[in-house]
Please model this.
Amino acid sequence: MAKTAARGGRSKVAIAGSNRKRPLAQVAANAANPVVAGTPAPELETIFDYVRHAAARLKRARVVFAHGTTDPVAEAAFLVGEAMRLHPDEVEPQAARRVPKAAGKRILDWIEQRIATRKPAAYLANRMYMRGLSFYVDERVIVPRSFIGEILDSHFGGDEVLRLRDPETITRVLDLCTGSGCLAILAARAFPNATVDATDLSAGALAVAARNVHEHGLDGRIQLAQGDLFAAVKNKRYDLIISNPPYVDAKGMAGLPRECLAEPRMAFDGGAEGIDLVRRIIDGAESYLAPAGGLLCEVGRCKPAIEKAYPQADLLWLDTEESEGEVFWIEAVRLKRRDG
Ligand SMILES: C[S@@+](CC[C@H](N)C(=O)[O-])C[C@H]1O[C@@H](n2cnc3c(N)ncnc32)[C@H](O)[C@@H]1O
Model:
């Protein structure tokens, strides 16, 4: 459940609990064990063996976990699951299953590539999961990890105290900067009566999005369009605009980890302060929102820069399980009274 929200205020493998029920809990302990990490590949037979071996290799190589997994065991379980064609939720319950030779070779190859190239695991497997849904990914799109997916569940449905809108009443959604199309697809599922326009400046990203929209059977409800922010959707009004735009500032761009260098630069670069695109979204949204509509926008660490640029704007900052103050919500009526 989401944490509280304040106005003006990922697939994980469990590593705790009973080891019998959660066999990968033992992996977490062993991954830290230098004896396991330092030895050549032992006899590897089961999913458990491969996760343990891969986690130890990743830990020793000090790879950065910035793409949906947060630790070596979760990342190892993801790659082993993909090689075995298992959803991440199925990996732990099937830990005792034997890994066929071909899948075992793929796992070992991926681990070595992950370490040598530092490419995100999602690009090696061409797959990423968000809110339990599977998305095709390649280097034309950023690896999906937006907090907006969780907010669509927690603040537009479920039993969250703060419900921003009744999901049944949302019929027109715009996803600006759609990338892989992940948020547009999650929105189409969260709002059963909605059609979704999803836009991006990158033709490559839109090709990936088209593949995902098709894989999810949503061709009839999601329309993709290429263009610079709102330029792709002239003369339309929406109940909801969602956006996870580029928002990394110049300092952040200079210090991106090697893992992120494999992702499209234009997915990150938000200008000197990180808010070049966010500003254009805030300034433009009112003209594209229905009177009762609202804007949900992710801004990473740019909250201070935005509050400085729009000191009077009545932004509602929403927290998620893994973020604080990285997404804001503002209704169309309040956008009228913004400044900046
Ligand atoms: C941070 S990624 C978000 C992708 C996706 N929504 C997600 O959450 O995974 C930002 C996206 O904005 C796109 N983009 C960058 N500049 C843009 C612009 N001026 N107009 C439209 N899209 C843009 C990039 O191509 C990239 O796909």
Notes: The chain has a mean pLDDT of 89. The pocket of S-adenosylmethionine is lined by residues 141-142, 144, 146, 177-180, 182-183, 200-202, 205, 228-229, 244-246, 264, 266-267 (CB under 6 Å). The beta strands are 5-7, 128-130, 133-135, 172-176, 195-200, 222-226, 238-243, 289-298, 316-320, 323-331. The chain has 15 helices and ten strands.
